[in-house]
Design goal:
4-stranded antiparallel beta sheet, Jelly Rolls
C-alpha cells in the first residue's frame, strides 16, 4: 500500500513560502508537527528527555555530562479559533495564571484586518497596542506582543473587538496563545 500525502498551501506572497516549507517538510520527511499544540509529534523533529538529536543547533549546548537547560514556561491559553469577527460582540477567552512568571507573550494570527483602527486587542481591558504588518493587507499574519512583566495570579481575559463594520465577513481571528516565561536565569 502506498501512503498518499496531501498538502495545501497558499499563493500569498507573504505566507506562501513559509507554508510551502512547512508542508514540504511533512511531505518529504516523515515528521509530525513542531509547534505547540501539534497533535502528532514524531520523527526527526522530536526527542525524549535523554536524547536531543539537534543539540548541535543549541546556542549554548551543555558540556559533556551536563544536563540540557530546560527553560521554565507555560501556555495558559491556546485556541485555534478560526472565528469570523463582528462589531457587535468581541471574541473573548479566559485563562488563569499562577502569577509566578517574569514575562509573557501574546501570540495571535489574523486575516482580513488591514488597519490598526479596525481592531482593538485587549488583555484584562488594557489595549495591547496591536499594529498590523504594513504589507499584509487582508492576508493572514502572525503577531507577537511581548510584555517584560509578569501576569498577576488569577483569572484573565483576552478580547479581540472588531471596530470596522465593513470588515464583517472578512475579518478573522485564526489563533491566539498566551505564553508565560521565567526570568533570564530560568
Amino acid at each position: 500500500m502506498t501512503k498518499q500525502i496531501c498538502s495545501v498551501i497558499t499563493s500569498s506572497h507573504l505566507n506562501g513560502p513559509l507554508v510551502l516549507r512547512h508542508e514540504l517538510g511533512h511531505s518529504i520527511i516523515d515528521v509530525g508537527e513542531e509547534y505547540d499544540g501539534g497533535t502528532e509529534y514524531f520523527g526527526v523533529n522530536t526527542a525524549n528527555a535523554t536524547s536531543l538529536p539537534w543539540k548541535h543547533w543549541l546556542s549554548n549546548p551543555p558540556g559533556p555530562g551536563e544536563p540540557y537547560r530546560v527553560e521554565r514556561s507555560v501556555m495558559p491559553l491556546q485556541d485555534y479559533a478560526w472565528m469570523m469577527l463582528n462589531t457587535s460582540t468581541p471574541w473573548t477567552a479566559h485563562f488563569r495564571s499562577a502569577g509566578t512568571y517574569s514575562r509573557y507573550l501574546v501570540k495571535f494570527s489574523l486575516s482580513g484586518i488591514p488597519h490598526t483602527s479596525d481592531l482593538r486587542v485587549e488583555l484584562d481591558g488594557k489595549d495591547l497596542g496591536w499594529v498590523p504588518e504594513p504589507s499584509v493587507g487582508f492576508d493572514r499574519w502572525h503577531y507577537d506582543i511581548l510584555r517584560l512583566e509578569g501576569l498577576r495570579a488569577g483569572d484573565h481575559e483576552i478580547s479581540f473587538a472588531l471596530r470596522n463594520v465593513s470588515l464583517q465577513g472578512t475579518a478573522q481571528l485564526c489563533s491566539v496563545e498566551v505564553l508565560e516565561y521565567g526570568n533570564d536565569s530560568e
